[in-house]
Target: Novel acetylcholine receptor chaperone
Amino acid sequence: MASIALTVLTLTLGMFFIFVGQFKITSKFFPDVHEDMRREFGRVNKVFPFYQVTGWRPYAKNYRLAVGIAEVVCGAILVLIPGRLKQLANVVLLILMLGAVYTHYILHDKFERMAPGLVFSLLLLTRLIIYRQVVQREKGLSAEKKPMKSEEKIKDEDVEEESDDQESQSDDEDKQRAPSDKKKDKKNI
Model:
């Protein structure tokens, strides 16, 4: 990665989502937080975003596990895997965070419950913007290098033309000298 800010933000977000996602998956490390997540997803399940469209609502446990696994996998991709897959993971996490903000808004939760989702949505959006700027800057630098090469070729061609001109001038001088030399040779004979 070409930008320190992009690298730091990517690693920080990746580690955060791995950490938070494991709260939703297992109670092994933080049983109190896991229990709070279980209760929260029981409440969140009632306002599942696609229920009005599909008429289907997942079980709270499956919903919690799906979100937790998605967070862990996308966080791991942000930390470990280079390339375009990071952008996909970033977009998936952004959608999850916007879904969390929407859910807390529909449940009329206090702002303090909505704030983490907003903050991390903004951080994920910022990461995408920084990535886009880095890509554009790299394209700009590579585009600047290409014309320089063509300018160098033009300069080389100019130098070659100048040397060709000098050679042709010296050839003309030689041709002019050659007849006079022949006249001198005839006189000497």
In short: The helical segments are 4-25, 31-44, 51-54, 60-80, 85-106, 111-188.
